[in-house]
Amino acid sequence: MLTGLNHLTLAVTDLPRSVSFYHGLLQLKLEATWDSGAYLSLPGLWLCLSLDPLRDSNPTADYTHAAFTVAASNFTALVERLCAANVQAWRDNRSEGASFYFLDPDGHKLEAHVGDLASRLQACRDKPYVGMKFYP
């Protein structure tokens, strides 16, 4: 049912420093920034940097997670299968596209997500985050 890695979200404590590292040093393409985050990309990779003060005090409580792509037509069946297996959810969906956030048996944070970077950027253009800027 999963069709690929959707995106990687990294919780960061200093957003400008992280943008400088990933965009300036590693040369990922800067797609958008806002007051508490940034979207960057490489071919086949969507990277989200998310400012998260919990990262300093408790690294396991932050928003860092790996997301997998799931087709809209398979989303409900996947979530039902995970819930039937008593897989623990760790967050409610607050963003564009259907998502189910869940833990693997070792507590790694995962997400099944319908959508992609293009659909997220369009949703952000329609309703931008605070301080959002888009880049060519």
UniProtKB/TrEMBL annotation:
<dbReference type="InterPro" id="IPR004360">
    <property type="entry name" value="Glyas_Fos-R_dOase_dom"/>
</dbReference>
<feature type="domain" description="VOC">
    <location>
        <begin position="4"/>
        <end position="115"/>
    </location>
</feature>
<dbReference type="InterPro" id="IPR050383">
    <property type="entry name" value="GlyoxalaseI/FosfomycinResist"/>
</dbReference>
<keyword id="KW-0808">Transferase</keyword>
<dbReference type="InterPro" id="IPR029068">
    <property type="entry name" value="Glyas_Bleomycin-R_OHBP_Dase"/>
</dbReference>
<dbReference type="Pfam" id="PF00903">
    <property type="entry name" value="Glyoxalase"/>
</dbReference>
<protein>
    <submittedName>
        <fullName>Fosfomycin resistance glutathione transferase</fullName>
    </submittedName>
</protein>
<dbReference type="InterPro" id="IPR037523">
    <property type="entry name" value="VOC_core"/>
</dbReference>
<dbReference type="GO" id="GO:0016740">
    <property type="term" value="F:transferase activity"/>
</dbReference>
